[in-house]
Write a structure and sequence with these properties.
Elements lengths: L4 E9 L3 H8 L6 E8 L6 H7 L3 E4 L9 H8 L6 E4 L4 E2 L2 H10 L7 E10 L2 E2 L7 E8 L3 E3 L19 E3 L3 E3 L4 E4 L4 H21 L13 H12 L5 H12 L6 H34 L11 H7 L2
Parallel strand pairs: 1-2, 1-4, 2-3, 6-11, 6-12
Antiparallel strand pairs: 4-8, 5-12, 6-7, 6-8, 9-10
Helix pairs in contact: 1-2, 5-8, 7-8
């Protein structure tokens, strides 16, 4: 008798050899199906995935929509009704495994919010407003990613950034947390968040709200979206965000990792504001028929922006 939980786990990955084994180890023997959506990694990502019994699907991003997770949800024939979305740096321990197994037996719910505990530079961040909720478990027929930006280019991440799963039906919450623990270097962290800020600047510039409407009193995702939309242009917002997370929400108690994490969060806001300003400047110059000598002609990011 197959004792595995009838859930299909979808994991997007690209050069995640340092993280992937820790993600897959608890899933082997628990999940009925594991699918790793790789982006032609140049390290051992695909080999590690196959060694743990996962099916590897290669994804080549050419821009636009859908991006990686939704493209696989649209095209892959999953064995199970229930889909669990995980990143390669997220680990599912026994308590939440058991809770998921019990949750998907019910007919009362069509999806669940999961709670993620953030580990950064080897330490769990307990303060600084770092606890994260994501709708990561849902019936495939009831959930899909919202589309916030139609025309996306290769300067952005090939996976959904701050698009969220939108599910119809009744949504519940699970109590036990998933561990989010990235072992990649800060250099990789900064590279990825540079791509994220490219995407976020375009979203702000073009006013793409998405199906998950901003709401101060809504879900955590709606509240964060409302705050980003309304507070981005407040003077000194990166500094204010740092003070809020580090002082008001006691990120100082997480030591040096807490300090660095709060700094990176504030820097991300600064980057988004700067890139929105850049996009506005390029647009104004193009309307005037001028050019911006600060933008290198051989920069594909700027070329793609100027062509719009």
């Amino acid at each position: 008798m197959n004792s595995r939980v009838p859930v299909s786990v979808l994991i997007p990955a690209k050069n995640e050899a340092r993280n992937l084994a820790r993600c897959l180890a608890p899933l082997r023997g628990w999940a009925d199906e594991i699918v790793v959506a790789d982006s032609f990694s140049t390290d051992e990502t695909a080999a590690i995935a196959e060694s743990y019994g996962a099916k590897v699907v290669q994804f080549a991003y050419l821009g636009g929509w859908p991006k990686k997770r939704q493209a696989i949800l649209d095209s892959f024939l999953f064995r199970n009704e229930w889909i669990l979305l995980l990143d390669a740096d997220e680990i599912l321990f026994a308590p939440v495994q058991q809770e998921i197994g019990e949750a998907i037996r019910t007919t009362s719910f069509d999806g669940y919010w999961l709670r993620f505990q953030i580990y950064f530079l080897g330490r769990q961040l307990r303060f600084g407003d770092t606890q994260l909720w994501k709708l990561s478990l849902f019936r495939k027929s009831r959930g899909r990613y919202e589309k916030r930006l139609e025309s996306q280019d290769l300067s952005m991440s090939d996976v959904e950034v701050h698009e969220h799963v939108v599910a119809t039906g009744t949504i519940g919450r699970l109590n036990h947390p998933v561990r989010h623990d990235n072992w990649n270097s800060l250099d990789r962290y900064i590279q990825k968040h540079n791509e994220y800020s490219n995407w976020e600047a375009r979203v702000h510039r073009e006013g793409c709200v998405g199906e998950l409407r901003p709401a101060l009193w809504g879900s955590q995702a709606q509240r964060r979206r409302w705050l980003k939309h309304n507070l981005l242009w407040v003077p000194g917002s990166p500094l204010l965000l740092f003070i809020y997370k580090y002082a008001v929400r006691l990120g100082v108690l997480d030591g040096v990792p807490g300090l660095l994490y709060c700094c990176f969060q504030a820097i991300q806001v600064f980057h988004v504001k700067s890139k929105v300003y850049e996009l506005e400047s390029v647009r104004a110059l193009s309307l005037e028929g001028g050019s911006n000598p600060s933008l290198a002609e051989d920069d594909p990011v700027h070329d793609s922006r100027l062509s719009r």
